């Protein structure tokens, strides 16, 4: 019985900035595919562009992945550190006659292209050194080029895009090693993917044309090809490529806006991939369901309303302790004031009535203002209108009647309803002043929830202060 090889995927960002939301989705797809099959998800930093790669950008990418909960296996691989291995492969291809030394200068190459343009011919450079005898080689700088087949076709069998055919006469003899001995990106990617045992290359479809050229290296080395899956890019709501004009681009910005990581994972998974009509799902379901044939070929459109809707559903089902931990991480990321111990305890007590219908952490914290604030309560403009002299007088009369109430929802409801009957009013009329007195806000959780979370002493103290100002 043949054993199925272990699935190995990778995410390979360039550390030139933050973790782009498109890159985050690519990482997620690779993570889901590997984790759902008991495979490995590897991380490689493609830091060969030394002018643009920075340690700060690498750190930003690692933080973005950590926030999204996309854990990787093994050490982080630096592509730059592996340059000697890349050069070794290029020189090996040279030794076997599958690559050659090209001594053409930039001026000669440009001259060739100008002549081709003038003659209406292809400007694809054809090096005169491809079949030159070593005895004719000058003592001059050279690059190493791959000998690409000059006839026939290269066929990319892509798990998303289907069969893509490119004529070999449309491909040039790609440079593998520059004249200064440094490897090019296209070579480095192939060598790294092979050495890391990558079985599935899941990446943006802007790399589709690269696949044909990279396959030439695999073939020349006699290495097995990975499964390719080139996924469409993400567009904005207007159908144009996602850019800064559409809003946040970095994963870190979404954390700072207060979206939960689970909601982000759910939304990004649905952005270009589907499983029937399922919109909301857990990580466990996503790992079980995710497959490459569910990825569409058309660009997905980013929709903030759908993101917020899913985030709200994930906040509602999240365990209170985990939610509290993530809220504290959000406050740190957004550089907001951290919770005091008292506020943390209050938030933990009130989480049951705060997480319903909150689509983000700022929304949840706004609802939680009643337990985060302290006396004296300063009502906002809308709440202040509910605390006129009449309302304050009613609160002053109510407070003593609550002194001996058993502090349960049923008894509080009974006590307040009894008071309303005595006052000849309805509870709806009393609710607004109670909200203003307890929270200083017009929009809050239910009055009974606030009183239960605050407790007897604090609730009576707040009502007493509001009534005393009558």
From TrEMBL:
It catalyses: tRNA(Glu) + L-glutamate + ATP = L-glutamyl-tRNA(Glu) + AMP + diphosphate. CDD domains: GluRS_core (cd00808). GO terms for molecular function: ATP binding; glutamate-tRNA ligase activity; tRNA binding; zinc ion binding. Residues 326-466 form the Aminoacyl-tRNA synthetase class I anticodon-binding domain. SUPFAM superfamilies: An anticodon-binding domain of class I aminoacyl-tRNA synthetases, Nucleotidylyl transferase. Keywords: Aminoacyl-tRNA synthetase, ATP-binding, Cytoplasm, Ligase, Nucleotide-binding, Protein biosynthesis. A motif ('KMSKS' region) lies at residues 241-245. One of its GO terms (biological process) is glutamyl-tRNA aminoacylation. Its EC number is 6.1.1.17. ATP binds at residue 244. Residues 6-308 form the Glutamyl/glutaminyl-tRNA synthetase class Ib catalytic domain. GO terms for cellular component: cytosol. A motif ('HIGH' region) lies at residues 13-23. Its main location: cytoplasm. Belongs to the class-I aminoacyl-tRNA synthetase family. Glutamate--tRNA ligase type 1 subfamily. Catalyzes the attachment of glutamate to tRNA(Glu) in a two-step reaction: glutamate is first activated by ATP to form Glu-AMP and then transferred to the acceptor end of tRNA(Glu). Monomer. NCBIfam families: gltX_bact. This is Glutamate--tRNA ligase. The gene is gltX.
């Amino acid at each position: 019985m043949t054993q199925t090889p272990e699935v190995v995927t990778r995410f390979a960002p360039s550390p030139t900035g933050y973790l782009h939301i498109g890159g985050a989705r690519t990482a997620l797809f690779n993570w889901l595919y590997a984790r759902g099959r008991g495979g490995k998800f590897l991380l490689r930093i493609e830091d060969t562009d030394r002018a643009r790669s920075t340690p700060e950008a690498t750190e930003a990418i690692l933080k973005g992945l950590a926030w999204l909960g996309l854990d990787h296996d093994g050490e982080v691989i630096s592509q730059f550190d592996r340059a000697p291995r890349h050069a070794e492969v290029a020189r090996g291809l040279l030794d076997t006659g599958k690559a050659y030394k090209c001594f053409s200068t930039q001026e000669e190459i440009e001259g060739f292209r100008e002549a081709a343009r003038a003659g209406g011919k292809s400007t694809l450079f054809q090096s005169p050194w491809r079949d030159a005898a070593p005895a004719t080689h000058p003592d001059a700088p050279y690059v190493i080029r791959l000998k690409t087949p000059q006839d026939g076709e290269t066929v990319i069998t892509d798990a998303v895009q289907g069969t893509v055919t490119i004529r070999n006469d449309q491909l040039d003899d790609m440079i593998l090693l520059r004249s200064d001995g440094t490897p090019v990106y296209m070579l480095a990617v192939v060598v790294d993917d092979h050495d890391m045992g990558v079985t599935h290359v899941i990446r943006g479809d802007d790399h589709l044309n690269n696949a044909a050229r990279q396959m030439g290296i695999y073939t020349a080395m006699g290495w097995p090809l990975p499964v390719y899956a080139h996924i469409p890019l993400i567009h904005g709501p207007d159908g144009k490529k996602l850019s800064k004009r559409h809003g946040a681009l970095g994963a870190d910005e979404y954390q700072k806006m207060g979206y939960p990581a689970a909601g982000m994972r759910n939304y990004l998974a649905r952005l270009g991939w589907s499983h029937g009509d399922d919109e909301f799902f857990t990580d466990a379901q996503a790992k079980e369901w995710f497959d490459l044939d569910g990825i569409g070929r058309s660009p997905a459109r980013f929709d903030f309303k759908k993101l917020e809707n899913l985030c709200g559903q994930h906040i509602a089902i999240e365990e209170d302790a985990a939610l509290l931990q993530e809220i504290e991480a959000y406050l740190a990321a957004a550089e907001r004031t951290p919770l005091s111990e008292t506020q943390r305890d209050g938030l933990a007590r009130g989480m049951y009535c705060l997480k319903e219908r909150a689509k983000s952490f700022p929304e949840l914290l706004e609802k939680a203002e009643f337990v985060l604030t302290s006396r004296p309560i300063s009502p906002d403009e809308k709440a202040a209108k509910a605390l006129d002299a009449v309302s304050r007088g009613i609160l002053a009369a109510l407070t003593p009647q609550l002194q001996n109430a058993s502090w349960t929802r049923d008894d509080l409801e009974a006590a307040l309803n009894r008071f309303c009957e005595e006052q000849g009013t309805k509870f709806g009329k009393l609710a607004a002043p109670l909200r203003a007195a307890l929270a200083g806000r017009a929009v809050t959780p239910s009055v009974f929830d606030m009183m239960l979370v605050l407790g007897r002493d604090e609730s009576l103290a707040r009502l007493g202060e509001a009534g005393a100002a009558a």
